[in-house]
Amino acid sequence: QLVESGGGAVQSGGSLRLSCTASGFYFSRYCLTWFRQRPGQEREGVAGIDSQGHTIYSDSARGRFTISRDNVKTTLNLEMNSLTPDDTATYYCAAMEDYRGHPSLSGGQFDIWGQGTQVTVSS
User: Fold this and answer.
1) How distant is the alpha carbon of residue 103 from its chain centre?
2) CB distance 91 to 4 below 8 Å
3) pLDDT, mean of residues 71-93
4) What is the band of 100 on the pLDDT scale with cuts at 50, 70, 90?
5) Nearest-CA neighbor of 5 among 106, 112, 110, 78?
6) Is the confidence at residue 107, as pLDDT, over 90?
7) 17 pLDDT tier (thresholds 50, 70, 90)
8) What is the CB-side half-sphere exposure of residue 45 using CA atoms within 13 A?
9) Residue 27 — pLDDT band, cuts 50, 70, 90?
């Protein structure tokens, strides 16, 4: 199970920190990724981290967002800075067993999903 928190409303240029708390699976062995779905658009991968801590970012997230994991607390985080209205979306965390050995932004491979948390950025 994955449960997201930390979403909310913020003005353009602001920051938010999303968290995702996991339970029921061997967290440290899993790849974890943040996805988002903007209004009227398909879901997209934003940032991913594998079991070894290697990370991957989408072009829009690179340099502004930072993904991290805490295997002791079984928590995934996403620090988001310099937010713009284009970042307005429902953000989801997802997990899959790390059998590939690298992080992924491809949603079709993930089999555990959270319920989502809304982020709204106003101009």
Assistant:
1) 12
2) yes
3) 98
4) confident
5) 78
6) no
7) very high
8) 21
9) very high
Contact 60, 121 (CB under 8 A): no
Q: What is the DSSP string of the chain?
A: -EEEE--EEEETT--EEEEEEE-SS-GGGEEEEEEEE-TTS--EEEEEE-TT--EEE-TTTTTTEEEEEETTTTEEEEEE-S--GGG-EEEEEEEEE--SSS----GGG--EE---EEEEEE-
Tokens (6 digits) for 111: 């089999």
Question: 80, exposed or middle or buried, with CB in 10 Å at 0-12, 13-18, 19+?
Answer: buried
- Distance in angstroms (rounded) separating the CA atoms of residues 64 and 93: 18
Look-up of token digits 């800075």: 81
